[in-house]
Amino acid sequence: MEEQSKTYDMGSGSVPKLMAKLAIPAVIAQVVNLLYNVIDRIYIGHIPEIGASALTGVGLFMAILMLINAFAMLAGSGGAPLAAIAMGQKDNEKAEKIMGNCFSLLLIFAVILTVIFFVFAPQLLIFFGASEVTLPYAVDYARIYVLGSVFVLIVLGMNPFLSTQGFAKMSMLTTVIGAVINIILDPIFIFACNMGVKGAALATVLSQAVGALWVLYFLRGEKTILQLKFKNMRLFPKIFMPCLGLGISTFVMMSTESLLSISFTSSLSKYGGDLAVGAMTILTSVSSLVMMPLQGICQGGQPIISYNYGAGKYDRVKKAFYTQFIVCIIYAVFFWSVSMLCPGLFARIFTDDLGLAQYAAWALRIYMAGIFAFGFQCSCQQSFMALGQAKISLIMACLRKIILLIPLIYILPLFMQNKVLAVFLAEPVSDITAAIVTTTAFFVTFKKLMKNPDSKKSKEHVE
Description:
Layout: H1 15-45, H2 51-60, H3 62-88, H4 92-119, H5 121-128, H6 135-147, H7 149-163, H8 168-192, H9 196-219, H10 237-311, H11 314-341, H12 343-350, H13 354-367, H14 374-386, H15 390-411, H16 419-450, H17 456-460
Helix pairs in contact: 1-8, 1-10, 2-6, 3-4, 3-7, 3-10, 4-6, 4-7, 5-6, 6-9, 7-8, 7-9, 8-9, 10-11, 10-13, 10-14, 10-15, 11-12, 11-14, 12-13, 14-15, 14-16, 15-16
């Protein structure tokens, strides 16, 4: 515990080395979480006799899961950067009030979401596309998971407050512990106890409960810098409203994933049938191998940028951003190169079906053609949040998916003979366009912020 709770001084020392110490555990946590999701679906898909239907039913629940995660990050991703800015201004008392208010918001969200999703799960899942065959599995999984959603909200919503204090390894362990427990419990509950999808849901809930207890134990202990205190859980609009304002961009990004998924699958089903829809499942899995590590890199940069911005140390802010910016671009370009040169390599990881693998390899080159631009997009988008720029962060969050991608999925097929190609092409067109706009907007804003000789402007973001 002594080693895992080690923190780092954000205001001194080598920025690249500090970022590496913070980002590497965050990237590991993202990769482990991704791995756990893949293995979880493999277990469900191998349930004797009902595997395919069960997997389809659980897949329909992903829209609800994304919304639960979105509400968790509404508080966590909004409150953590503001807490870091307050810490940079040597105002730990305000930072603790921000954390306490965000925790109360998470509990309120948990109550509301649990009631709504438990009661209306069947209706929602039918709306998402559940059939008479898949609906029972979807409802069984959904209702057990929803009953434990409070643990999910605490883990996802409070974990950023560990990272923002510099406890990168503790933050990583929260995810790793939950993922390992889930992977162990899944086969026990699903197969040994013959609980099927209910067992998968129960394993997930229990693993998230352990993660939630881990976070709360640490934040209530003596090793933390910011302590979660009951007196700070009383809600004050002047404390929690800026958190919601800043976190809304992440909320929009995550909540629109369900709408985006529906748009892609409905269009591909119309123009390309089951083969195109199956390929899309592979493409989204491969793209997550790019996006999740990039998010981990930015999680390492966020507390350094936020703290030093609050402290008025603009040279360190610049150094942190440009280090993050370059690393994100290098990773995204590397992954783009591999995708263009060896698309079949990724396709064969997810399927043994030759026809689907060949189709997915063809589609992958189109879908991933603009993924190199995501290095620019992710780094600048996350840095807007680290600097407390709530409004422009929200606009950039809406740009790629809501303003560009979803409309393009429906518009491009109207002008192209190959309708399936048009749907897949919507992704790189939106990726490149959004990256150009976001990067340009960021550097214009960044230049203005870095000209400020004092910390007056940064104080405005936490008051």
